[in-house]
Design brief:
Blueprint lengths: L21 E5 L4 H13 L5 E4 L8 H6 L4 H5 L2 E3 L2 H4 L5 E5 L10 E2 L1 H13 L4 E5 L8 H5 L3 E3 L12 H15 L19 H17 L9 H13 L5 H15 L8
Parallel strand pairs: 1-2, 1-6, 2-3, 4-6, 4-7, 5-7
């Protein structure tokens, strides 16, 4: 039942409630939309809200008003200048998009994404779900920072969702999965934890810098797409921290001087 009291109340979660994925809103346009997203998040037990360069600035009075009591989510929201900064500590990121992208990435529905997110939660991984601006959605550069994409199967003749609807729909799929006691299937690879986006981005930047030094990027106009393709190729490997360090060692060795063999 809807609360008819206009005074915002502080929503809360049980102390033992599991930590859900972060919700990353990239360049959201209206404070009221952020507030409605916060309300949808708390409905589904999500509290980690991250904002990338909100158009109308932050903090926002309209966000508080439309949060309908999810004040804690609003007050604890983290502000970032870039998408890369917002996902740097995460080990698995899903980008929501309704458009076809010229990238090869795993594609999830809300249900299959919930299964994957819970499997990774059991392995103590930090995960996030990325949403784009209300009018244009995520850019290709934003999507390139994600490990996978999420499409919502809706009526192809009318599939438009507003921002809060998208957060609620995907958040509910995650929350519903909490009641499913089916063991998650997940393969643990050795003792090294999964790479964070900061680890991965560092390895990719190292690689791109050395490719630049070696004259790999011949056509400046094609470089952004080429970089995204290279990045996506490595992202599909779902690398560990040790693997990113190994990759950087390989790049460093290939870029350095050839050592003489010991006789």
């Amino acid at each position: 039942m809807q609360d008819t009291n206009n005074t915002p109340k502080r929503g809360a979660l049980p102390d033992d409630h599991p930590q859900g994925p972060a919700v990353i809103l990239v360049e959201p346009q209206l404070g009221k939309n952020i507030g409605m997203c916060a309300r949808a998040m708390l409905n589904c037990g999500l509290t980690d809200l991250r904002l990338v360069s909100p158009r109308d600035g932050w903090p926002s009075g309209s966000a508080i008003q439309t949060s309908s009591g999810a004040i804690g989510v609003i007050e604890n929201a983290k502000l970032y200048e870039t998408t890369a900064d917002a996902v740097s500590d995460l080990q698995f990121v899903i980008a929501t998009t309704a458009r076809e992208r010229d990238m090869v990435k795993p594609v999830y529905t809300p249900h299959s994404a919930a299964v994957e997110l819970h499997a990774r939660r059991m392995q103590k991984q930090n995960c996030g779900i990325m949403f784009g601006p209300e009018r244009a959605g995520l850019t290709n550069d934003d999507v390139a920072l994600a490990n996978a994409v999420l499409n919502v199967p809706l009526n192809p003749g009318f599939s438009s969702l507003n921002l809060a609807q998208a957060v609620l729909l995907i958040g509910y799929a995650w929350y519903e999965k909490l009641a499913d006691e089916t063991p998650a299937i997940y393969t643990r690879r050795g003792e090294s934890p999964p790479a964070t986006q900061l680890d991965f981005n560092g390895a990719m930047q190292h690689l791109m810098d050395e490719l630049e030094n070696k004259g790999f990027f011949l056509n400046p106009d094609k470089r952004p797409n080429t970089e995204r393709n290279i990045r996506n190729m490595f992202a599909r490997l779902d690398m560990t921290q040790q693997e990113t360090r190994t990759l950087r060692g390989i790049v460093k060795a290939l870029a350095g001087k050839k050592k003489a063999r010991a006789e």
